[in-house]
Amino acid sequence: MSISSQHIRRRELLRAGGLSWFGLTLPEMLSRLEAGDPLKAEPLSTFGRAKACILLFMWGGPAHQDTLDLKPHAPVEIRGEFSPIATNVPGIQIGEHFPQLAQRMDRLCLIRSMTHRDVNHLTATHFLLTGQPPPPSGNLDDDWPSLGSVMSQLGRGRAPLPPFVSMRPTVPGDAPRFVEQSHGQFSGWLSATHNPLTIDADPNREDYSVGDFELTNGITVDRLDDRATLLQSLNDQRRTLDRQAATVVDKNYQRAFELLDSAIGQDAFDVSREPDEVRERYGRNAHGQTVLQARRLVERGVPLVTVFWPNDGIKNVSVYWDTHSRNFIDLKDRLMPVADQAFTALLDDLENRGMLDETLVVWSGEFGRTPRVGQRNSDAGAGADGRDHWPNCFSTLLAGGGIRTGIVHGSSDRHAAYPASDPVQPVDLMATIHHLLGLPPDLTLRDPQGRPLVVCPGQIVRGILC
């Protein structure tokens, strides 16, 4: 039997290299193929283990050398100002300003070998949210559909709540709102009916509300039918509108009416119902309360919630995790403590509620930061106390939902500049998330031209599955 008849892709052969593949070296694998043994992989019991996913997106790109992959023996201009601390898993260390995460390493999987080549925030997000490279057109409508949009297309979720919620809290201020322009967060070339319910409000505010899904003053649930009737009358007069656009509008309004008329819909978006001690545990700030809101949504049947790091509106500091300057000051004072508190509160809360085994949690940015402080790697550059964009190597954390915990997968080189072992491309991470959520690896959807496209052609990262 010829090797070519086995249809083994070139990338898989190269990836096997001199390492082992299902316990075999590359020469042994080729020998087995020539002998007629097809080397079928064992089926994975983790398929569909996760019923929901919370994606904590640290927009801006956390400096992996200062958070999760410190290099204490590197020169000072590489290692920076922070020290590693021990975790509750022997042999694994992370950054000193993640003390609570360090005590929960036994519930986490740390990937230190994430890699791609896009240095642009707005397009690099596309890799992490879809697994695919961004479209050359630069048009958001040409994006590949986000994970949540795919799940919406497949009918996931429990009505009347939407199947996909994206939270991008913005505190009033003058800081740029880059997240809103980022690729990969919407339905792309799928129908706009599969866009997320997007919430830009800050759940930490007393006047927190969720746009169209909140009753305006003077409007009662009993009057919704009148509004629906009025909407239908207006729709009858909109014959000049594009049919597809009209359908999208109608479906979104219908979803709003169903939510407003539903006790579960109104309750899901009311974080004030949480006990004060729970709210304090997550952190009384925009990020902490948004993560708490995500838990409430997942608990009530929303299968995918994306939580973007908030734009806090503060001048003269790093925007999001984009630490071109003040890298060490902002990580220590504003970024890592808030992320540490919210993430660990979520882990504890999910576990205490018996939800962690069926909820996949992913913590990641779109890339990392330059190995050398002050190094220039993009048009933005970096100040003497900052790190520039660096997609060649960065770190991601996962927990729950079929993930093997208490481990580090992959490694970076001595300067945290490039993967030294087991590189993980975003498409492979997304393929693994698809697998855990029960999406088949050959899942195809049709684009507007009717062409069947494989949504996520990556390879499952088996080493991180339990």
Strand order of the largest sheet: 8-7-9-3-10-13-6-14
Helix count? 14
Largest sheet: 8 strands, mixed
Q: Runs with pLDDT <50, length 5+?
A: 1-25, 35-40, 237-243
Rounded Rg: 23 Å
Helix content: 25-40%
CATH topology of the largest domain: Alkaline Phosphatase, subunit A
Q: How many separate domains make up the residues?
A: 2
Mean pLDDT: 85
> How many E strands?
18
CATH homology superfamily name of the largest domain: Alkaline Phosphatase, subunit A
Question: Which CATH first-tier class of the largest domain would you pick?
Answer: Alpha Beta
Shape: globular
Distance between the termini: 34 Å
Look at the helices and sheets and give the structural class. alpha/beta
Describe the structure.
Helix content is 30%, strand content 14%. By secondary structure, the chain is of the alpha/beta class. It folds into two domains: 1-41, no CATH class; 51-210 and 269-464, Alkaline Phosphatase, subunit A. The strands form six sheets. An eight-stranded mixed β-sheet has the order 8-7-9-3-10-13-6-14, with helices on both faces. It has a two-stranded antiparallel ribbon with strand order 1-2. Strands 4-5 form a two-stranded antiparallel ribbon. The chain is globular, with a radius of gyration of 23 Å. Residues 1-25, 35-40 and 237-243 have low confidence and may be disordered.
